[in-house]
Design a protein that fits this description.
Protein name: GTP diphosphokinase
CATH architecture of the largest domain: Orthogonal Bundle
Largest sheet: 6 strands, mixed
Structural class: alpha+beta
Strand content: 5-15%
CATH superfamily of the largest domain: Hypothetical protein af1432
Number of strands: 11
Radius of gyration: 26 Å
Function: In eubacteria ppGpp (guanosine 3'-diphosphate 5'-diphosphate) is a mediator of the stringent response that coordinates a variety of cellular activities in response to changes in nutritional abundance.
Pathway: Purine metabolism; ppGpp biosynthesis; ppGpp from GTP: step 1/2
Organism: Peptoniphilus indolicus ATCC 29427
Shape: globular
Number of domains: 3
Helix content: 55-70%
Distance between the termini: 92 Å
EC number: 2.7.6.5
Length: about 500
C-alpha cells in the first residue's frame, strides 16, 4: 500500500526521508487496526489517500507524515508526545493542529460553522500546512461521501461548499477548490448536477473537435514565430457552470468558456506574444479580456484571459500563463511548501495571507457567530470585484459593492466624510455598482457625515457596521448633550 505513495514522492523529491514516511505509515496502520470506514474498507485507506493527495501537490516530508498521522491523536492511543518522540516537534504540532480542528463544542449549526472557521484561522496563522492537510482530508472524505446517510451527505456537502471550497480558493488552490465544489453540488442538488453532466456529455465530442482544431491552428502559428508552448483543453468545472445558470440567469448555450484552451509558456513576454497571435487569428469579444498578470488576484493567481469567436461563429476562452504561474494557479499557497529544504516564507507568501490578517481582525471584532458568518459569506467568500485606488493599489470587494464600500474599506473616516466619487475620472452616484478594473477616487468633506439611507446602499457588512457605529456614537453624544441641558435647567430652577 505504501509503495505507491513512496514512488509518487520519489518522482518529485528523491531525497525525502522515506524511512520516516514508512514509519509514519506503520504507526498509523497499527493504531487504526480494526477500525473501518463507512465503505467497509480498513481505516488506513483514508490517511494513505490523504497523503497521496498531498504528494500530488508535491508537499514536503513533514506535511506528508502529518497526512498519514492526522487521525491518530484523536482516534487512537497515540499521543502528542509519541509523535514528537518519533518525528520531532514540527510534525507533532502539525498533527495536533489538524486534531484540534475536529474538537468542536457548539449549540447550533451557525455556531458550529463560526467556531470551525475561527479554529481554522488560528491554525492557519500558526502554520498554513495544517489547513493544507485539512483540505486534503476533506477532499478524500468528499470522494467517499456516498457511503454516508442522506442527511450527513447534505450537511457535509453544504459545509464543504460554504467553508472549505472558499478557503481553498483564498489559498489559490483551484484544483482542490473545483473538485470540492463539484462533489458538493452532486449531493446538494443531485437532479441539476446530473442534468448538467448529461448536457456537457452530449456536447463532449463537438467540444473536443473544436478544441483540437483551435490547438492545431494555434500551434502552427506559434511555431512560425518561434514561441514554444504547451496547449491543452481546459475542463470547466460543473459548479461554475451551475452558478452562471442559477445565479446569473444564463442558459447552457450562453456560457462562453464551456470550451476553453490553456496555453503554457516559459516567460511573461511570450504570454503577451501568444495573446497577439490569438487576437490575430480570432475576433476578441469586447469586455471579455482580463489581464491578471498585470493585476493578480489577491490569492496571487496570474493569467491572461480572453474570449474569442472563430470563423465558424464558435465562441471559446483562451487562458495564457507561464509554467510557474500555472503551479501557483493549481496549488496556490501549497506551491510555497514544496519539498525543497530550507523553504522560507517569502514576501509574496506573506502578501498572499493579507486576507488572513483581516480575518484575524474580524475575529476580535465580531463575537456573535451570526455576525461573523454573515461577514464571511458576503465580505470574504462572495464573488469579488477588483478595483484600483488612484495610486494603483488593488482593493478587492464583494460583487455588488458601491463607492461607499470602497471608501469604508480604505478607512472609517474616509467613509464617514464621503460626499461623492469619481470612477475612471467620471463623477458617479454613491449607489453605482463597481466593476473590476475601475479606478476610484473618493470625494470627501470633513464637515459631512453618513446618512441612514447608506445602510440600504452598501453591500459589505463591514461598511454597515462602521455606519451603525457612527450613529451610535452620535446618539450617545446627543444623549449626553440633552442630559447636560436638562441638568443646567434644573440648576437654574
Amino acid at each position: 500500500m505504501i509503495d505507491k505513495l513512496i514512488e509518487k514522492i520519489k518522482f518529485y523529491n528523491p531525497n525525502a526521508n522515506f524511512e520516516q514516511i514508512r514509519l509514519a505509515f506503520e504507526i498509523a496502520k497499527k493504531n487504526h487496526e480494526g477500525q473501518k470506514r463507512n465503505s467497509g474498507e480498513d481505516y488506513i485507506i483514508h490517511p494513505l489517500n490523504v497523503a497521496m493527495i498531498l504528494a500530488e501537490m508535491n508537499m514536503d516530508t513533514p506535511t506528508i507524515i502529518a497526512g498519514l498521522l492526522h487521525d491518530t491523536i484523536e482516534d487512537t492511543e497515540v499521543t502528542f508526545e509519541d509523535v514528537e518522540k518519533n518525528f520531532g516537534i514540527e510534525i507533532a504540532y502539525l498533527v495536533d493542529g489538524v486534531t484540534k480542528l475536529k474538537k468542536l463544542n457548539y449549540k447550533n449549526k451557525q455556531e458550529k460553522q463560526a467556531e470551525n472557521i475561527r479554529k481554522m484561522v488560528l491554525a492557519m496563522a500558526k502554520d498554513i500546512r495544517v489547513i493544507i492537510v485539512k483540505l486534503a482530508d476533506r477532499l478524500h472524505n468528499m470522494r467517499t461521501l456516498e457511503y454516508m446517510t442522506d442527511t450527513k451527505k447534505h450537511e457535509k456537502a453544504l459545509e464543504t461548499i460554504e467553508i472549505y471550497a472558499p478557503i481553498a480558493d483564498r489559498l489559490g488552490m483551484s484544483k482542490i477548490k473545483w473538485e470540492l465544489e463539484d462533489l458538493s453540488l452532486r449531493y446538494i442538488d443531485p437532479d441539476k448536477y446530473y442534468k448538467l453532466v448529461d448536457m456537457v456529455n452530449k456536447r463532449r465530442q463537438e467540444r473536443e473537435d473544436l478544441i483540437n482544431r483551435i490547438i492545431a491552428e494555434l500551434k502552427q502559428n506559434l511555431t512560425k514565430l518561434g514561441i514554444v508552448a504547451d496547449i491543452n483543453g481546459r475542463p470547466k468545472n460543473f459548479y461554475s457552470i451551475y452558478k452562471k445558470m442559477e445565479y446569473k440567469g444564463k442558459n447552457f448555450e450562453e456560457i462562453y468558456d464551456l470550451s476553453a484552451v490553456r496555453v503554457l509558456v516559459e516567460d511573461i513576454k511570450d504570454c503577451y506574444g501568444v495573446l497577439g497571435v490569438v487576437h490575430t487569428l480570432w475576433k476578441p469579444i469586447p469586455g471579455r479580456f482580463k489581464d491578471y498578470i498585470a493585476m493578480p488576484k489577491p490569492n496571487k493567481y496570474q493569467s491572461l484571459h480572453t474570449t474569442v469567436i472563430d470563423n465558424h461563429g464558435e465562441t471559446f476562452e483562451v487562458q495564457i500563463r507561464t509554467y510557474e504561474m500555472h503551479q501557483t494557479a493549481e496549488y496556490g499557497i501549497a506551491a510555497h511548501w514544496k519539498y525543497k529544504a530550507g523553504v522560507s516564507k517569502s514576501t509574496s507568501f506573506d502578501e498572499n495571507l493579507t486576507w488572513l490578517r483581516q480575518l484575524l481582525e474580524w475575529q476580535k471584532d465580531l463575537s456573535d457567530p451570526n455576525d461573523f458568518m454573515e461577514t464571511l459569506k458576503v465580505d470574504f467568500f462572495a464573488d469579488e470585484v477588483f478595483v484600483f485606488t488612484p495610486q494603483g493599489d488593488v482593493i478587492n470587494l464583494p460583487e455588488g459593492s458601491t463607492p461607499l464600500d470602497f471608501a469604508y474599506r480604505i478607512h472609517s473616516q474616509v467613509g464617514n466624510t464621503c460626499t461623492g466619487a469619481k470612477i475612471n475620472g467620471r463623477i458617479v452616484s454613491l449607489d453605482y455598482k463597481l466593476k473590476s478594473g475601475d479606478i476610484i477616487e473618493v470625494i470627501t468633506n470633513p464637515n459631512s457625515g453618513p446618512s441612514h439611507d447608506w445602510l440600504k446602499i452598501v453591500k459589505s457588512p463591514q461598511a454597515k457596521k462602521k455606519i451603525n457605529q457612527y450613529f451610535k456614537i452620535k446618539d450617545r453624544e446627543k444623549n449626553i448633550e440633552r442630559g447636560k441641558e436638562s441638568l443646567e435647567r434644573e440648576v437654574k430652577n
